[in-house]
Amino acid sequence: MVDDEVEMQRALRTGLSYHDFDVHAVGSGEEAIREAAAWRPDVILLDLGLPGMDGFATLKALRPATRAGVIVVSVMPDEKDKVRALDAGADDYLVKPFGTEELVARIRAVLRRQADVTAGEPVIRSGDLEIDIGRRSVKVNGKTVKLTPTEYELLRYLALHAGKPVTHTTLLRQVWGDYAIGDKYNTRYVVAQIRKKLGDDPANPRYIVNEPGVGYRLEA
Amino acid sequence: MSRAAPYGVAVGGVIGITAAIELISSLAPVQGLSALYLLFVLWLAARWGRGPAIAGSLVAFLLYDFFFVPPVGTFTVRGPAELLELVVLLAVALVTSQLAASLRRTHASAEALARESRALYELATEALRSPDVTVALSMLCRLATELRGVGRFALVAVDFGQPSALAGDPLTAEELKQAAWSHEKGRAVGIAVRDGAVKLMRTHPGATELVYLPLASGVAVIGIAGDRTEPDQLRMLAALIGLADLLLDRRRAALETERARSLESSDRLKTAILSSLSHELKSPIALLRTGLTALAAPQAGLQTDQRELLVDLDRQATRLDRMVGDLLALSRLEAGMELDKEAHDFADLVAGATRQLRTELAGNRIVVELPDDLPPVEVDEVQAGRVLANLLENAHEWSPPNGVIEVGAAPRGGVLEAWVENEGPPIATGDLDRVFDTFWTRRARGSGLGLAISKRVVEAHGGTIRVENRRGGPRFTFTFPLAQVSAVPNA
Is B250 exposed, middle or buried, given 0-12, 13-18 or 19+ CB atoms closer than 10 A? Predict the structure, then answer.
């Protein structure tokens, strides 16, 4: 955990210890980088408002050095910061104040995703939606759904990062390539088409949910 | 030198030459000494022009006739040869003086041009050197008043509709008013400028009057003196006016940049204060919530009633957080925050808001009825989501347990009209307009900001919001602009 507030360190350490997590707390970005290499955590909880080396710089320095999941925490609920953090390699973000249960749920989701990636799980499930990466097939309730290549690419990328918010920019780049950075309405349109084919209600979606101002997340 | 002096020199010179000829002739007889007169008349013409030259040649004619042309001692001319000699003398005087005079005029105008260019060059240099154009403008006014036919010259700036004398001769309040009028109407008074040429229009010769010429960013006020202004002076005046126009324009551009910069920095300051306030208020709440929820976990080993107390406390902390968030959102909206508008499907906005409030809305049935072909709206996703979340929260607060909350939308007259309706009690008729007021609330529970924020967000998008009592319960109706979405590629 990287947070410069000692009280916050204590509160989080106490709360997380009740859920059987082993917590190491540091107060600065420099320490975080050292500790990440020495102690090898599974998840890093990184506050963006750090003294000295700021959260974004720390995130950039951490990313190549560690395979730990990074959950960015910030007291500023600014969507631009969220997008920046996610694009810089964060796995999730959480706006302060938050309850301990919510944090625990996010940490578990990151850990689960790490386990999936390690196991090379070829079939990803979200409720009764089933995406078989190996066979390029998508099924709802066991019934095959026909998607266009663009729709499949978008869904596949979200599935590979199930539970994690994926930014519009990332989706545009992943689905349309480097030259497609531009109109976010492209992704919105394709998501609307996918939802229609999956029989999902756009006003109350079960599979692909909106992350307002950020992008989309496939419910894990 | 007085005007008579050249004539004195002419007469004196001719007398001198006569004496010299007399002296030379007395020593030795020399033919054609009258050429000395010619030489002198030539010099006179070149030096002073036609008048002294003619005067000189006439005097020379008379003296030569009197002293040297036989019969000596009389003005009588005897033969045609002598007469011819005299006529030639006169003709030479006239022709050379004419030539010399035109030469002198050319020279004088070349000198005037050089002077003008030098003055304009100095002015332009000054204008370019200093970022503050007032020095250059004062210099320009001084140059203008030095012109013949120009009595006064002043420049009036009109900044954001307010006239002020900027440079040149002082103006009375009445004159300033007249200048402002001229600028506002874009109408020149007593002066015309066409293709860079200035024409002054005098009501009667010799009158001293003020003329007004509106420029892009100010007015030139010129006092005409004398009954005539030379073409070269008018040309210079036109050049000065053109330069004044450019300088005034530059001054206004600089003013506008300055103004924009100060507005921007005050905006930045506001945002900085808000973000620091947000941090200061939210950090303690964050600590409270983390600590309270940590201890409320069963693993913490507290008794049930103790845990219930912690859950209550956490709920209050959450409320406090919501209120701080509302206050910040409202002040940001009032500071005129920028909207990040893009095309969005209304259904997405509804989904975002219901998801955000899923715990609160668990006890209600949300019925969303949207037509399939609903066109997208052009809104700031986060802010528009806030409108829906606030209205849903308000609906939830007033709904009976398990009450239905209805959300709908339809395109109407170029905008999207959307509504949120609940099954709660009707709003008193007198309160229908007041529910959107800041801090107005029907219950002690809310912050009284939710609906006020919704109204501001909707209005910032150019829409309207209202509430009415329907048969089922109160319905809040608001509008958002429709998006102009072109064909979607590669889909």
Answer: middle
